């Protein structure tokens, strides 16, 4: 009898893995945040082909069952009036070029109906999210221009505040010196205009005051495109319980960020030690890539084995998803990986090819196929349709 136990166990595990893969492939998977376009402008990598670096390309996206990607259009705070909008358009141009080179693999979509059509055609549905209100340069007509080019959400702030909305970083670090807190009257006009255009309002990165001002202003459900749970990891970028409850009341969805620093409360201290050890190298690479964070990412890739020791287990990422479900319900959580925008992700989550591992872990926690469908993409589809009307 004992001799039969191991083969039976292995057979059971194989069936479980097959079941997870089938459920994963049947679901529509939407990732609401990937930063590959801003890095691709530097690396010049052909994302239509398998890459040995980074987290995204069309080959690995297919392997991971990714059906729709909202590509982040991002630039840091050093870009401002006269440069930020142009940078945003340059990144959108690079997405258009990728689509033009790979028309049989990827297509630009603007609503849930077009997204479903792309899935039926077995193409990756590409959507655009602009990460940082500074890229509109305080101009309402720039919002119109970006929306015409395909912008489906606007993250009202990045780490830097705008003249009309304060960020999570600034509300914590610069609170006493800020000229205003939350949304100004112009900021509220911007939210209303986004509602009118069918562009989702993204509250990731915004300060608490801005967050609640948005929910008091918007007439459409919002999205937190890449955020985690504050009660698990008290990082200023994560959402507190009251914020999560308010977002659920709004009908919105919080898409869980895979970044180790938002997932794991012990990560920051470990990173500090790593940073001090390689400070010269990080600073040098930061100059080459015009951003200290990118310098850190490159340094981590050069010292991969050591960097891997800083990473949390995959179970900790799943804990954030499970926490949100238990607090505010299955209808308000999604996936917003932040791939290619961070230097570290949980062990096993190395690229877009690894999404099936999330499904497998959720099945271990007895989530149903219907639940998983909602988490992987159904909830985001609902919010997208509520905003666009299609």
Automatic annotation (TrEMBL):
The lineage of its organism: Bacteria, Pseudomonadati, Bacteroidota, Sphingobacteriia, Sphingobacteriales. Pfam families: Peptidase_M19. It comes from Mucilaginibacter lappiensis. PROSITE patterns: RENAL_DIPEPTIDASE_2. It comes from the Bacteria. GO terms for molecular function: metallodipeptidase activity. Transmembrane segments: none annotated. GO terms for biological process: proteolysis. SUPFAM superfamilies: Metallo-dependent hydrolases. The keyword Protease applies. Residues 1-19 form the signal peptide. InterPro entries: Metal_Hydrolase (IPR032466), Pept_M19 (IPR008257). Keywords: Dipeptidase, Hydrolase, Protease, Signal. This is Membrane dipeptidase. Its EC number is 3.4.13.19. PANTHER family: DIPEPTIDASE, MICROSOMAL DIPEPTIDASE. The keyword Protein biosynthesis does not apply. It is an enzyme of class 3 (hydrolase).
């Amino acid at each position: 009898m004992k001799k039969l136990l191991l083969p039976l166990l292995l057979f059971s595990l194989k069936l479980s893995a097959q079941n997870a893969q089938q459920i994963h492939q049947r679901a529509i998977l939407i990732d609401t945040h990937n930063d590959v376009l801003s890095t691709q402008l530097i690396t010049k990598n052909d994302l239509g082909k398998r890459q040995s670096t980074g987290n995204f390309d069309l080959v690995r996206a297919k392997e991971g069952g990714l059906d729709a990607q909202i590509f982040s259009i991002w630039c840091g705070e050093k870009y401002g009036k006269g440069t930020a909008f142009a940078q945003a358009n340059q990144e959108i141009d690079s997405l258009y070029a990728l689509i033009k080179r790979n028309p049989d693999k990827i297509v630009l979509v603007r609503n849930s109906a077009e997204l479903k059509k792309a899935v039926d055609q077995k193409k990756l549905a590409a959507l655009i999210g602009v990460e940082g209100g500074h890229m509109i340069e305080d101009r309402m007509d720039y919002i119109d221009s970006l929306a015409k080019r395909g912008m489906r959400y606007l993250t009202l702030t990045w780490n830097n505040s705008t003249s009309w909305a304060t960020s999570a970083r600034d509300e914590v670090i610069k609170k006493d010196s800020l000229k205003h807190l939350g949304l100004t009257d112009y900021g509220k006009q911007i939210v209303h205009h986004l509602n009118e255009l069918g562009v989702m309002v993204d509250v990731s990165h915004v300060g608490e005051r801005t967050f609640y001002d948005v929910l008091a202003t918007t007439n459409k459900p919002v999205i937190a495109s890449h955020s985690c749970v504050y009660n698990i990891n008290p990082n200023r970028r994560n959402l507190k319980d009251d914020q999560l409850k308010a977002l659920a009341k709004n009908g919105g969805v919080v898409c869980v960020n895979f970044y180790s620093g938002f997932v794991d409360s012990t990560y920051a201290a470990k990173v500090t030690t790593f940073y001090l050890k390689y400070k010269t190298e990080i600073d040098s690479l930061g100059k080459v890539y015009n951003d200290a964070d990118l310098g850190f990412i490159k340094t981590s890739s050069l010292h991969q084995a050591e960097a891997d020791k800083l990473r949390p287990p995959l179970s900790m990422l799943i804990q954030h998803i499970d926490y949100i479900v238990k607090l505010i319900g299955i209808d308000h959580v999604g996936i917003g990986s932040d791939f290619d925008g961070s230097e570290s992700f949980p062990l096993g989550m190395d690229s877009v090819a690894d999404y099936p591992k999330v499904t497998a872990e959720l099945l271990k926690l007895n989530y149903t196929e219907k639940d998983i469908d909602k988490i992987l993409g159904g909830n985001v589809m609902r919010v997208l349709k509520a905003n666009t009307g299609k």
